[in-house]
Predict the 3D structure of the following.
Amino acid sequence: MKLLFNGNEVTDATTLGVVQMTAGTNFFAMQCKEKIQINVKPASGEIVTYDMVTADKILDVRARHSEKSGIDTKNIILIQGATVCTDDMTLDTVKVSAGGDSVTLLCRERMTVNVKTPKGEVISHDMQTTDNVVGLRQRHAEKRGID
């Protein structure tokens, strides 16, 4: 369990008198943050594990995964069950819905695919790296109004 005071971790060696002087009062609030393991499973299938705390947000997981994988955070989509996780969701919320001390999030990478028509027009489509050519054709047909 991690104890925080004013956003800073209070170590086991910290005396309460030091914390009290910092707070300037006999009363102060500490937050307990439970540790959790987050498993991120990208399309490659290799699971990457991060030690986080339940108060961290999905944006924090995306940032950690971006540092490790080199993928831009805006191109990382994290999915738990059938739910696309939003940046403001806390891991506590995700953990409760998953149930357990660790959570596995599927990671999908966004990419832009440009299709050049016979007339030379370039049409961009937002896709995921796991999408296939059939999905691209369908999306292109929908965008162009083609059956």
Remarks:
- Residues 21-29 have pLDDT under 50 and may be disordered.
- The longest strand covers residues 102-116.
